[in-house]
Amino acid sequence: MKLGLFRIEQLLSQMGNPHLGVKFFHVTGSNGKGSVTTFLEYLTHEHGKSVTGYYSPHLSTILERFKYNTVPIDETLFVDALEVVRPHAERLDQFGPEFSPSFFEFVTAMYFYITKKLGAEFGSVEVGLGGRFDATNVLTPEVSVITTISLEHTNVLGDTVEQIAFEKAGIVKPGKPVVIGQMPEGAKNVIKQIAQERGSKVYEYGKDFVAEVVKLDFNKNIYNYYGDTKIENIPVKLNGKHQLYNVAVALKAFELVLKPDEDAVRSAFEKAFIPGRFEEIEGIIFDGAHNPQAAEAFVENLDLYFPNKTRAVLFGILDDKDKENVLRFIGPRCQAMIVTRPPSKRAMKVEETFEIAKRYCQKVILEPDPLKAVEILKNSEAEVKFVTGSFYLVGLLRSYVMNGKVSEELILGGA
């Protein structure tokens, strides 16, 4: 991993700074950033504005990282962007490894080129990792959003919520407002301090805006929002009561930039969709929960939507994640667990995962090959079957279950 913004700044400078002149929403957070970035893209689109979205990681194809008016771009535009960025990246390569753009920096430069080429007025951008040194942090947003703060990527971001909050608050820009979700007081205080130093007004969930649950049904959830505007009976397709905070944070950020129309808001949330987020396909639920906070939300959703049902889980997690505390939540809520290896170079210690899992679940088997593992899951007698622990794993198996095969891109796996 390469920290610092000088490579992406050099790359964009050579390209004519395509990131300038666009109105951006910039979203970070330990959990919920993908949901909020998606909501903001759909909200902007439903209000008649042209908008690109930038997401990571992708599930099935790299094209999913780049959206235009809520739809992934096509291969032609992707190749065009690749060919535009490549010579500029190669020029930097000549100065040595320190100047050579990383994969994420390269792809981020492609996103800014795509946004400029399409002439999009708005962009909804999800931070890749942290905030302060993330390649997306070259942009100047209309509003910054920090969804939640919990312990994650501690080897890079720090091992306290305060240190992680400091890294994520790196996206707060001078004079630009920041919207923050539900988080520990210590993290909140760090963000407020940085915002004050930069002359940025803070809008805080529970104080400046709030949402409430009307009804929670699988794929048919209803919320009310109270901020500068009051919008009731908002239908939300994305599942989980934690979406309460994401809906509220997205709407607050949006109303700081554009005037919400009630019908457009309802339409946006009813349509907004993220593959692999508590999503059911062929009787299997796919969810990318990969840290303790997400795992806790995941088991809450299991109890909420599928109470008193027997459960089997196919679980795979990257080695740099908090395996112990993710399994501490998921293991006891399942009658059976299959441990497998996600398709990533960062998931080599599958036996270690298996040993931890045995402490938390009564019946655990090890099948390192995920395609064989999902066949075992399919044949399980459990009433609810799900795949979780890693977006790489979810992406691979979601594609396999839907199509009966997987692309070479998915078999090779991610970084």
TrEMBL record:
<protein>
    <recommendedName>
        <fullName>tetrahydrofolate synthase</fullName>
        <ecNumber>6.3.2.17</ecNumber>
    </recommendedName>
</protein>
<dbReference type="GO" id="GO:0005524">
    <property type="term" value="F:ATP binding"/>
</dbReference>
<dbReference type="InterPro" id="IPR013221">
    <property type="entry name" value="Mur_ligase_cen"/>
</dbReference>
<keyword id="KW-0547">Nucleotide-binding</keyword>
<dbReference type="GO" id="GO:0008841">
    <property type="term" value="F:dihydrofolate synthase activity"/>
</dbReference>
<keyword id="KW-0479">Metal-binding</keyword>
<keyword id="KW-0067">ATP-binding</keyword>
<dbReference type="GO" id="GO:0005737">
    <property type="term" value="C:cytoplasm"/>
</dbReference>
<dbReference type="Pfam" id="PF08245">
    <property type="entry name" value="Mur_ligase_M"/>
</dbReference>
<dbReference type="GO" id="GO:0046872">
    <property type="term" value="F:metal ion binding"/>
</dbReference>
<dbReference type="GO" id="GO:0004326">
    <property type="term" value="F:tetrahydrofolylpolyglutamate synthase activity"/>
</dbReference>
<dbReference type="InterPro" id="IPR036565">
    <property type="entry name" value="Mur-like_cat_sf"/>
</dbReference>
<dbReference type="Pfam" id="PF02875">
    <property type="entry name" value="Mur_ligase_C"/>
</dbReference>
<dbReference type="InterPro" id="IPR001645">
    <property type="entry name" value="Folylpolyglutamate_synth"/>
</dbReference>
<feature type="domain" description="Mur ligase C-terminal">
    <location>
        <begin position="276"/>
        <end position="382"/>
    </location>
</feature>
<dbReference type="InterPro" id="IPR036615">
    <property type="entry name" value="Mur_ligase_C_dom_sf"/>
</dbReference>
<dbReference type="InterPro" id="IPR004101">
    <property type="entry name" value="Mur_ligase_C"/>
</dbReference>
<feature type="domain" description="Mur ligase central">
    <location>
        <begin position="121"/>
        <end position="252"/>
    </location>
</feature>
<comment type="similarity">
    <text>Belongs to the folylpolyglutamate synthase family.</text>
</comment>
<keyword id="KW-0436">Ligase</keyword>
<keyword id="KW-0460">Magnesium</keyword>
